[in-house]
Amino acid sequence: MEPLATNAALVIIDMQQGMNDPNLGRRNNPDAERHIQQLLNAWRQSQRPVIHVRHISRTPGSVFWPGQSGCEFQQALAPLKHEHVVEKNVPDAFAATGLERWLHMRSIKQLVIAGVITNNSVESTARSGGNLGFDVIVAGDACYTFDQTDLSGRLWPAEDVHALSLSNLAMDYARVVDTAELLADGD
């Protein structure tokens, strides 16, 4: 992998307390938070921009409904005062948030995406970023998802949902790499 841009932005998606709700079901990749923390530490050390995306739901009963603890960032991954926070109401962090403009104003062309849910907000944001012309990299081992039932009632394990989502992104929208590779090329 070629070296990361000196202003490559780390985009951490929806790492909120609500993601720990047991009602969301069984998840994959128990090491995701550790990998996200490694990326966050590296970005802070190199003084690259960090963007924290928070989902604020419009659906009553959601773990991300305003005013609930589920909306709060997970403490270990909480933004520092100078780090940019984007609030979104749909899976795509570019939709009606001003994120694209914020990046363009700072001449940021490369994004490294981590967070949740792989096949929802991560995939939606990475697709939009790629379509908008950004150089998008998804840290595949710094994301996770949950078991999912398809329209025919078949239950798909989170590992399969995650793998297919990353494969979809790798076709046209983003490069998918592991955290170790990003950290090795980050300097």
Automatic annotation (TrEMBL):
Molecular function terms from GO: hydrolase activity
E.C. code: 3.5.2.19
Top-rank taxon: Bacteria
Family annotation (SUPFAM superfamilies): Isochorismatase-like hydrolases
CDD domains referenced in this protein's UniProt entry, alphabetically: nicotinamidase_related
Domain Isochorismatase-like: 8-180
Name the record gives this protein: Nicotinamidase-related amidase
Keywords associated with the record: Hydrolase
InterPro entries assigned to the protein according to its UniProt record, in alphabetical order: Isochorismatase-like_dom, Isochorismatase-like_hydrls, Isochorismatase-like_sf
